[in-house]
Amino acid sequence: MKRLVIYPERCNGCLTCTLACSAAHSLAKDILGAMLEKVPSRIKIVPVEGTPVPVKCGHCEEPACVDACMAGAMQRDPVTGIVTNEGNEQRCVGCWMCIMACPYGVISPNYKEPKMAVKCDGCRSRQEGPACVEACHNRALLLEEIEEIGFSRQVNAGKRNKEKAQAV
Amino acid sequence: MRHVIIGNSAAGVSAAETIRRISPESSITIISEEDYPAYSRCLLPDFLAGDIGGESLTIRSSNFYSKNSIETRLGKKATALDTDKRQVVLENGESVPYDRLLIATGSVTTFPPLEGIGLPGVFGLRTLGDARKILKAAGAARRVVVVGAGLVGLEAAYALYRRGLEVTVVEKASRIVPQQFDPTASKVLMKDMESEGIRIILNTGIKGIVGRPLWERLFGRKGKGVVLEDGSKLKGELVLVATGARPNTDLVKGTGVRVNRGIVVDDYMQTSVPEIYAAGDVAETVDPVTGQPSLTPIWPNAMVQGRNAGYNMAGCPRKYSALIGMQNAVEFREVPAIAAGVTLADPGEYEILTEYRPDQNIYKKLVIKDNVLKGIILVGDISGAGILCALIRKKSDISSFKHFLLLERFGYGHFLKKAVGGYNA
Known about the structure:
- The complex is a heterodimer of chains A (168) and B (425).
- Chain A is α+β, with helices and mostly antiparallel strands and 168 residues long.
- Chain A has helices at residues 16-24, 31-37, 64-68, 97-101, 131-135, 146-167, and strands spanning 2-6, 44-48, 51-55, 75-76, 83-84, 108-110, 116-118, 141-145.
- Chain A folds into two domains: 1-56 and 121-168, Alpha-Beta Plaits (2-Layer Sandwich), CATH 3.30.70; 58-119, Alpha-Beta Plaits (2-Layer Sandwich), CATH 3.30.70.20.
- Chain A is built from six helices and eight strands; from the N terminus they run E-H-H-E-E-H-E-E-H-E-E-H-E-H.
- Chain A has a two-stranded antiparallel sheet with strand order 1-8.
- In chain A, helix 1 packs across helix 2 (31-37).
- The mean pLDDT of chain A is 92.
- Chain B folds into three domains: 2-108 and 245-313, FAD/NAD(P)-binding domain (3-Layer(bba) Sandwich), CATH 3.50.50; 122-241, FAD/NAD(P)-binding domain (3-Layer(bba) Sandwich); 336-419, FAD/NAD-linked reductase, C-terminal dimerisation domain (Enolase-like, domain 1).
- Chain B has helices spanning 10-22, 44-49, 64-67, 128-138, 151-162, 183-194, 212-219, 299-313, 385-394, 413-419, and strands at 2-6, 27-32, 70-74, 78-82, 87-90, 95-97, 100-103, 107-109, 122-123, 143-147, 166-170, 199-201, 206-210, 225-228, 233-235, 238-241, 245-247, 263-264, 276-278, 283-286, 293-295, 327-330, 337-341, 351-357, 362-369, 372-379.
- In chain B, the strands form seven sheets. A five-stranded parallel beta sheet of chain B has the order 3-2-1-7-19. Chain B has a five-stranded parallel beta sheet with strand order 9-16-10-11-12. Chain B has a five-stranded antiparallel beta sheet with strand order 22-23-26-25-24.
- The chains are: A alpha+beta (168), B alpha/beta (425).
- At the A-B interface, strand 2, strand 3, helix 3, helix 4 and helix 6 of A face helix 8, strand 22, helix 9 and helix 10 of B.
């Protein structure tokens, strides 16, 4: 199954993904409209020691936000695996329990009407797929087969950390 | 395999859907004294305020029970538990036999032993039934006195205020939400509520609740309301008691199920009686922050405990990886706030880092011991709260980045970069 993989080493902090995300979730569906409507981006670029690191909801298999949602609005689609509090029968009331629960800090409070928690919804209603992936020209955000790529990334990360430890 | 679950809220529902996922064949029965499909008590203040209707309180779809082949006995209170015959007896005399039983009966409101506590116009707020009664009485009321400035009291106060009532909250402690927030945080939240027009009286207990006849005798004038400890009087047509709740353990009295403050369970959510489990507000588990047995009446804790009970009941042993015992997120008016873990800490025993920007209503506090995060208070800016909670739960060594945690730019990227093995941009 294809999942979004982040390659932070390829990110140059251009923030195009955040603009594309806002645009995709705006009524106007363009960047200017998103800025005028003040639509928040669901992907964040975190500055770490001077380098940009993209951070976004990973749609966990056993999401802490779903457990925390006391309105029953945050749900995981068993077919697509997408976790979202939008478009479900139960409505988010903006209680912020999910923000307290998410260990990756990828959910944000939105105070504009309607007051609700905002996070990546996998662009599930977007025909072309995730807007951030489409926008990134540095290939820092890719849709890849998680079974193939996940394992090799773990192995490579382990190797790099081992080398660093030995070099010290 | 006959699974019987007493309780139709977070823990009960979570257990039921877990069992059904693992075991398509077994029978599942949910018993509840309330006659509604599973709903969220946490949403009752929103219902009181008029933001949502009663039908929007449900936490699952209307076909949840039929879709999952869950039998129900709703509106029928479980009155006795026979552990020898392995059956639950309901108030209508019906016996429900079980192979595995989950007690998820939640909490009940504790009413202090005050004069007049049983008078009409005095309510707790725990169930949809309570909320409906309050709304009915609120129609003819102008003033409400809320006893207790805890989370329930303040949520209810704000909700009734938005309905148009004049609200006075009376609290015995010297600050609001005294169990979760420290004086600085409480002050920020209190000013936010007071600027709305809600009156809060601190350092004062209630002596008694007084109905019309006694009020006239005592004071020589017509009225009704409460009398405070210092003898002064507060008029009010409606009194909402929000001084606390206790685990609903009455059902297991006289059985072999061991109760401390709540029903004691092991790592597999099993009680002292084999094949009887407990989860949610009624259960007592070990708080990972304090290492002590605790009640953790928090919604996510109930959901996760229910899921773990479900796994174990369905024959898949799974240890409960405990959530932080005390963790709350609130926003009474405009200022969001989160408190988790050990928030009230002696500076002699803990390392405390704070940041306070009163003009922006921002207050952040980290409680640290031996370079492990033990508790947090975030007021005004709650972004990234979950990362801090994860650091508490994992008991991570934060010595290399503890001052970084209070900064606005702190985020998960710090850890993701490390996990990827670092890199040169």
